[in-house]
Amino acid sequence: MGKINGEYIILQNERFYLKGYKDFANERLKIEDYRGNLESIFTAIHELEKEKYVHKTIIKCRTENVTSFLSKGYLLEASIPGYFLGSTAFFLCKYHDQNRYTSAKWIEEDQQLEEVWKKDRNTENAGVSTSSIRKATTHDAKRLSTFYAGVFPIYPVPIEDPDYISSQMEENTIFHYLEVNGQIIAAASAEMNMEYRNAEITDCATLSSHRKGGSMNNIIQSLENELISKRVFCSYSIARALSFGMNAVLHKSGYTYQGRLKNNCYIYDSIEDMNVWYKDLSFHFAEKSALSAGN
Question: Is the Cβ–Cβ distance between 146 and 156 less than 8 Å?
Answer without folding.
Answer: no
